[in-house]
């Protein structure tokens, strides 16, 4: 029986890091962030819709989406975030559904991971058999956002406060992966969860 596990959590808590560990252990990963970049590729219908909604100033000179500018807008404006999500979530949901189906029918992977920051918010829980939520303390989220993306403390706090709280996400979780400690500790936690599925 193939199992579909949703992997979600707060910003910069470590979803990608957990996915990478699971990939090495033998899972296949469906990466919602990668899909979200693909659906807004140059000339795509979804990018056209975004331009229609937000304006051509969100395009780079080469016709690609100015992701940085759009991120700046939506992370500080919840109305704009809602509009963007209404455009891209349905198509990403459909793509994830297709990839799950394809992997079930065409590959030998027993564990299919759906790595999606907004899995709960975009109503995709129904696509997975269970949900793992990656957490870290807010201080650690801020530190990692600063080190990885160069965000100031106030920018990081704004992004965190624009998301569903971790406390709320944890209520949906079948497993909680606390990634507040070292990478070594994280590997141990993920490996022991993986063993439960072997
Ligand atoms: P996002 O929400 O932006 O998609 P994410 O949840 O996928 O982020 P990662 O990119 O995996 O988070 O991790 C955030 C940053 O923190 C990365 O730079 C990563 O290398 C680092 N990191 C993750 N886990 C640890 C850890 N246990 N110790 C130190 N650094 C870590």
From the structure above, extract its key features:
198 residues, alpha/beta, globular, 54% helix, Rossmann fold, 5 strands
Percent of sequence in beta strands: 5-15%
Radius of gyration over all CA atoms, rounded: 17 Å
Q: Which molecules other than protein and nucleic acid are bound?
A: adenosine-5'-triphosphate
**Which oligomeric form is depicted?**
single chain
Largest sheet: 5 strands, parallel
Number of strands: 5
Number of helices: 9
Q: Helix share of residues?
A: 40-55%
Question: If you average the pLDDT, what whole number results?
Answer: 95
CATH class of the domain at 3-33 and 92-195: Alpha Beta
Write a structural description.
The chain is of the alpha/beta class. The protein has a domain at 3-33 and 92-195: P-loop containing nucleotide triphosphate hydrolases (Rossmann fold, 3-Layer(aba) Sandwich), CATH 3.40.50. The chain contains nine helices and five strands, in the order βαβααααββαααβα. The protein has helices at residues 15-25, 32-39, 45-54, 67-74, 78-106, 138-149, 153-161, 166-171, 183-196; strands at residues 3-9, 28-31, 111-115, 130-135, 175-178. It has a five-stranded parallel beta sheet, with helices on both faces.
